[in-house]
Amino acid sequence: MANKLAGEFLFFKTQPKNIRTLLITNMLYGMILPIIEIFVGAYIMRNTGNSTYVVIFQLFMYIGVVSTSILNGALLKVFKVNWLYSFGIVLSAIALMVMMFVHSIGIVQLGFAGFAIGASTGFFWTNRYLLALTATNDKNRNYFFGLESFFFSLWSIVIPLMVGAFLGTIDGKVLFGYAINFNMGYQIITVIVFVIAICACLVLAKGDFVNPVQKKFIYFKYHVLWQKFLALASLKGMVQGFLVTAPAILVMRLVGNEGSLGLIQGIGGGATAIIVYVLGRIAKPEHRMKIFGFGLFVFFIGTLVNGIMFSAIGVIIFVLCKVLFQPLHDLAYFPTMMKTIDTVSGIEKRNEYAYILSHEVGLFIGRASGMILYISLAYFASEIFALKYALIIVAGLQLISLPLAKHIIKEIDTKYKG
């Protein structure tokens, strides 16, 4: 076993410097993601008791993502891409801290907090896409995203367990003469998040990254191949919003507290982390659609079980399916996205960031549609109805992604190859 691990580490060291730098940076930032994705929703639920508030927060967050994606494109003309990437990492930690230290939570406060965290993740994700696009090629992207997903899956186990255990044990304790409650526990966590963010930025500074040569990045007309991929991005965005909000809402409603949330995430994450790393290591580009399809099927089954049972057991099964689906989906989706950008940017002779920006717009359309669907079902039917059936509707629509993705890859390999 030790020899196997040593061999994998040696293989990692053979990768180009920028890939290694980017992977270590993302490994550190991966510790922060579960806090943003899981416990922010739980924090809002604990302080408001209203799942619609969680959805509103997410909607403003996604507006922030798109807004700063446009700003980021303009800033790339002046600042280095890794500086902007670092800024996004630090800003996400600061925005999280500000939110946790606010004493009252209403729709206005949630809107500002959501936009601020969205702004930070906008800087993070768009520059992450750009750096990964330029640092990798189609042959090593499975390995890159497999290893990245391995760490994201690993932290999705460890961090929720640690945070859940910390919040569960610290409540009511006395520290330095102060009685600690859940909200103060969240505040302590955000300080730790800020330290991790600084460490990630220090690592990223060691990379040799370059900005796009062409400066124009806003276009309104694209090649038909990219238009098809934007449809795929919208489908991904529709389910992506629910992956952030649904687990926290369902667990807090039907299972228990943050400790339960961390435990459930941890149960399924261990096996998933290993599976994703192995697939990333051995899978070839032609295997991506099989991985993609399996992930979609698992997620759809999980939503069906949740909708039919709508109980603690149903939620546990859904979250386990979600934990397996997300990294498998990303392992196939992101290399396909970058292969499409490589192809279309070559055809249209445009800045790669133009496609990253339009991709964020495509994601936002899907995310907003999903959020509006949930709010509409909760308003016109009931919150319980929305929790049961919104996920099933979104997962069913998501199944369209498989034939669409297969068509895009086939078109690239036959019509535009070489």
Q: What's this model, at a glance?
A:
By secondary structure, the chain is mostly helical.
Would you give an account of this structure?
The chain has a two-stranded antiparallel ribbon. The protein has helices spanning 2-13, 17-29, 33-48, 51-75, 81-101, 107-135, 141-170, 182-204, 224-255, 258-282, 288-309, 312-348, 352-380, 383-398, 401-415; strands at 174-175, 178-179. 53% of the residues are buried. A hairpin with a 2-residue loop joins β1 and β2. Helix content is 83%, strand content 1%. With 418 residues, it is an all-alpha fold. It has a single domain, classed as Growth Hormone, Chain: A (Up-down Bundle), CATH 1.20.1250. The model has no long low-confidence stretch (mean pLDDT 81). α5 packs antiparallel against α6. It contains 15 helices and two strands.
Topology readout:
Layout: H1 2-13, H2 17-29, H3 33-48, H4 51-75, H5 81-101, H6 107-135, H7 141-170, E1 174-175, E2 178-179, H8 182-204, H9 224-255, H10 258-282, H11 288-309, H12 312-348, H13 352-380, H14 383-398, H15 401-415
Strands of the largest sheet, in order across it? Answer: 1-2
Mean of residue pLDDT values: 81
Alpha-beta content class: mainly alpha
Percentage beta strand: under 5%
- What helical percentage do the residues reach? over 70%
The CATH architecture would be: Up-down Bundle
Give the CATH superfamily: MFS general substrate transporter like domains
How would a crystallographer describe the biggest sheet? 2 strands, antiparallel
Whole-number tally of structural domains: 1
The level 1 CATH classification is Mainly Alpha
Count of DSSP-assigned helices: 15
Give the overall silhouette.
Answer: globular
Q: What is the CATH fold-level name?
A: Growth Hormone, Chain: A
Low-confidence stretches: none
Q: Which value, in Å, is the CA radius of gyration?
A: 21 Å
Instruction: Please give the alpha-carbon distance between the first and last residues.
Output: 41 Å
Helix-strand string: HHHHHHHEEHHHHHHHH
- Total strands: 2
